[in-house]
Amino acid sequence: STQIDEACQRSSRNYPHLVAATLGLHLIDRSCSGAATGDLTSSQRTGVAPQLSALTSATRLVALSIGANNVQLISLLGGCLQIPGRPAPTTSSCGPATVAGATGELSLLEPTLVKTYREVRRRAPQARLIVVGYPQILGRSGGCAIFPIPAGDVRYVDAINSQLNAVMRRAAGEAAVDYL
Q1: Helix orientation angle between 154-174 and 96-123, rounded to the nearest 10 degrees
Q2: What digits encode the pLDDT tens for the residues 114-138?
Q3: Could you tell me where the beta strands, DSSP code E, fall in the chain?
Q4: Burial code of 7-29, b = ≥16 C-beta within 10 A, e = fewer?
Q5: pTM for this model (two decimals)
Q6: What angle do CA 59, 40, 27 make, to 5 degrees?
Q7: What is the C-alpha to C-alpha distance for residues 149 and 157, in angstroms, rounded to an integer?
């Protein structure tokens, strides 16, 4: 198994581990499934240290992906999910209204991200901060068993995913950090 932290559902094959191994870097991985920006400065769950507590003035590189859980991305996409055991919807189960709702939520996220990125810079002033956008959630054919979304709704899911990344990119620009 590649799972190295059950509480955070962290894998030894997540992108921080793969990048660190490729570049020969010492890694302190504090990634934690379900984290929102508040979990960077306070404990997300019992036994899990605040993620930013790993930063020091000696830190030289920080890669950060955060924001999807602030806006409860999975809940926003809930209208798109095809529920197992129920007949598939005959029409698209999400659409422009779902994207509009996500747009409203995402507009509130940008100032929070700017503040978050600036806090990382404050705690690790010598570090290069790279904000890593979220990968495309779905393939063109739709969802899978874990994330069952009809093919007709893929464009709406992609639109929300793209908006989230655009917010992250703008916030990174405002905070003068790198976006990838």
Answers
A1: 30
A2: 999 999 999 999 999 999 999 887 7
A3: 3-5, 10-11, 61-64, 128-131, 178-179
A4: ebebbeeeebbeebeeeeeeeeb
A5: 0.83
A6: 35
A7: 9
